[in-house]
Amino acid sequence: MGDTQDIIDWATDYDIFDPRYVNDPFRIWDTLRQSCPIAHTSRWGGSWLPTTYEDVTNIARDIETFPSGGGIAVIPPTTNDPNAGPPQLLPYGVPPISADPPLHTWTRRLILPWMSPQKSASYEPMTRELCDRLIDGFIESGRADLAADYAQQIPVRVIAHILGVPTDMSDTFTGWVRDVLEFAYDAERRQRGTMGVIQFFIDALAERRENPGDDLISELLHTRIDGEPIEDSIIIGMCALMLIAGVDTTWSAIGSSIWHLASHPADRRRLVAEPDLMPTAIEEFLRAYSPVTMARRLLEDVEYKGCPMKAGERVLMNFPGANRDPEVFDRPDEVILDRAINRHVAFGAGIHRCAGSNLARMELRVSIETWLARLPEFELLDPAAVTWAGGQVRGPRSAVVTF
Ligand code: HEM
After folding, report:
1. Rounded to two decimals, what is the model's pTM?
2. Which keywords describe this protein according to UniProt (predicted)?
């Protein structure tokens, strides 16, 4: 992690891994929006941080000026060994998220059907059964960690099911995903997580060639593009993306939502009493606690609204900050369960808009519904003891509740 104690000015020296930013980025964005709406830092290779809805969505939609092919992680790849790891093994990164058209177009088209509203609904019974089983495991004890014992356990198993890989490897997958995203500032852990995921899918492809099944990997192995099979490195990248994009993000969103209900009893009681509010409540949790910040690494110098952005620097796609912009959202820092107009960008904007949003929404709804049906009364054991992860994905990592 960066040297965090010496920050003097968030406008010129921010660090999104700083605990102050991780724990409460909202006040920092408010201040920046008024004084310097596009902040800059030299940390982590240099980046820019837009804080308004207009700037974040403008930049997300301008794929010519702000392409994804240069890199989408919020900090540079491992710095201790520039020759190691993904670039050689995954020359195209993890498409479609790391790709620009035309590679983006056809790789996205191949995965979308696996997360259509109908397909997502077909995973609902297994998700509901999983949520019930998790609650069975702790309900008698009168307490649980809503983040670690519940939220963290759900998306990884749903994704494993879609990919057709063993759900009993969930803890290993979760460890890799955390190494890649949450501990990205630690070169060794990031490398270990990346290699774990890649090696796993190299083996999974070999196995699925022998024993094809009714799953995404098998389908990708049989797909032909212009009469040619898809390169293994692209299939591995796509599968790695599904695992990485589908785990930490959704678990963080589930965790933040239930944490909100634990710390705001009036909202909890209202949602229990008025379950018809669930659709707007879920959109509101997604807006207020948007977990995902992406990046674009510039391939050439660009000037945007007077900001001299240099080739090699990153622009952080601050979707969470955009969702708190008072120009667009009335009372942005309040969670309003029945907020009527809510054009949030928690799932991004433009051609890279989240391909898994139907699935994520289903998982959010089922996990919150199941929790509230079984545990309508609960509260945080110690609000000050809750810990948050941040950086690329923000969400609670430990939040013990009693019931
Ligand atoms: C609450 C949960 C989630 C949130 C907040 C979220 C957020 C996002 C965001 C902001 C992007 C845009 C990235 C960019 O502009 O660079 C994105 C892309 C993507 N997400 Fe999600 N995501 C979530 C869940 C999922 C799930 C469950 C999956 C499926 C496994 C998934 C798969 C993807 C994929 C494949 C892309 C790349 C799409 C493209 O580049 O065309 N996400 N997500």
Report:
1. 0.94
2. Heme, Iron, Metal-binding, Monooxygenase, Oxidoreductase
